[in-house]
Amino acid sequence: FFIRNHLPVPCINLKDYSLDLQLPSSNVSLSFEDLQNKFKKSSVTAVTQCAGNRRSEMVLIKPVKGLNWGISAIGNAKWTGVALEELLKHYDVDIETVRGKYIVFEGLDKQEDGSPYGASIPLELARILKNDIIIAYEMNNVQIPRDHGYPVRVIVPGVVGARQVKWLKKIYFSSEESTSHWQRNDYKGFNSSIDWHNVNFDKSVAISQLPVTSAICDPVEGAELEEDAEEVTVKGYAWSGGGRGIIRVDVSADGGQTWHEAQLKPNGQTPYKSYAWTLWEADVPLPRGINKTTLICKAVDISYNVQPDSVEGIWNLRGCLSNAWHR
Amino acid sequence: FFIRNHLPVPCINLKDYSLDLQLPSSNVSLSFEDLQNKFKKSSVTAVTQCAGNRRSEMVLIKPVKGLNWGISAIGNAKWTGVALEELLKHYDVDIETVRGKYIVFEGLDKQEDGSPYGASIPLELARILKNDIIIAYEMNNVQIPRDHGYPVRVIVPGVVGARQVKWLKKIYFSSEESTSHWQRNDYKGFNSSIDWHNVNFDKSVAISQLPVTSAICDPVEGAELEEDAEEVTVKGYAWSGGGRGIIRVDVSADGGQTWHEAQLKPNGQTPYKSYAWTLWEADVPLPRGINKTTLICKAVDISYNVQPDSVEGIWNLRGCLSNAWHR
């Protein structure tokens, strides 16, 4: 499971920890014990993916700003805690009717000037997700490791990692997006003719739900097959934002001339609430008489969204949203 | 607004019309007057699109089965009637808890053997759409024209036209999809290596929500510009299934080397319930010293889904889901 933070990882003593809810008519401060004991326990199994996953493929075309992630800035885990909707209901706040346009989350990780890491999601999106948004205090049935947000992190399934604030300290409603750098001036998409001289971050919509993606994990790049191999077993992951389940993965060993449909491993989720990834496997015949080939995969989600063919078509200055056919 | 029917258009006398609801504990028959007078009036403005829209671009690569639609098998209209959720609630049926996996719709249009046109949507999807599904008796504030389903049609916004049954006669819940040809053996997607010799319709998921698309409507193909023109004004539509609003449209006049962001006309809808299309316009500089150019457009939706680059990558035997960059 990848690790990414923008500010130094805070050192938190559980006894001192509190989660602050700024509600329309009251402010509430909850201890870790309160979170564990006062509310029903809820879980969600979900992918968390950095917007910069597979950025390394964009770098090959033209330099971009950001960490040079391969295909591994993604992880899948079971998160357990309190459903946000349930938590609010306890304090008589109905997520359907509460005023505001955004829910803002702030962490305990701080910039040099003392201001915290922050992110927000539109209330419209929170109302769609309802009790799938979890204020999590467990990751895979144990306390959340420090690098993943100990003791408390918000999980907003289907949404980019940057909005799933770790070391969660404060939740409030606002008529505006979080004013943080990462909400306003980062994690946005642009077309490939926008560069650092003409970019206007105000004109682009903050990334929330992520598009369909997939990647080949095995064999790894450069792997050698047996000399007389007639086929190759290919394995990987596929996932789409917004809970959209994966319905097909195609694999090609001849540059996209011929496609083979992979076997999808059931992930136990329903087509429109498929927050977990789908692992897949395909036995793909190798073209005859060659000694080198490039494998390609591409996935289709329940809305029949497909991955774009080329990195060129989606290249952007921040190297985000890199979801072209994986080669 | 395009017209498409699979069976002969029925001739319906309003006095004889009834809508039959087969509910878990009762059967209800509603006259047109009942529909108009017994329930709250609700409206939705939504795109209806044939899965075969832009099939003509797939035909250029390899023959496909289906009508040779250009970019016009799509329409946008205001539909008014009774929200399905509301209608069911009136008869004490809660869409959240009712048993079954699908809602099935049947029309008054019949095959030679007397069986009706039918379609279904997963109950999971109906629960997401809730009161946005309309049992419509008005189109753009007047009675629905005969070709569009007079007197009653179901509107399931964000979903392919084939599921939005016209001349609606019957609604029921089932553990199975509609058994109609168009649900089971048509309107499904396949990869481009599947042909009529190896196709297995059972293995593919029925098309419901459609992926992001856009098209250039003006100038039309073959249009001549003024001799000394330095730029061209390009206009078109963009839309995505599932209520996903359009956040960007890019236009290129140099084969995708340079992209210009179009102005989007507000459609009055919210980002995650944007069932109407988004019209757009862009002034695009023309490359110097050429006397012929191909314009390209591509759109991005709120989940940052993009259109695929090529028709080759999405070609399928039925010519469905043709949403590559429009050239």
From TrEMBL, chains A, B:
The keyword Heme does not apply. The keyword Oxidoreductase applies. Residues 6-182 form the Oxidoreductase molybdopterin-binding domain. Residues 206-327 form the Moybdenum cofactor oxidoreductase dimerisation domain. SUPFAM superfamilies: E set domains, Oxidoreductase molybdopterin-binding domain. GO terms for cellular component: mitochondrion. Pfam families: Mo-co_dimer, Oxidored_molyb. It is an enzyme of class 1 (oxidoreductase). Its cofactor is Mo-molybdopterin. This is Sulfite oxidase. It comes from Arion vulgaris. The gene is ORF47292.
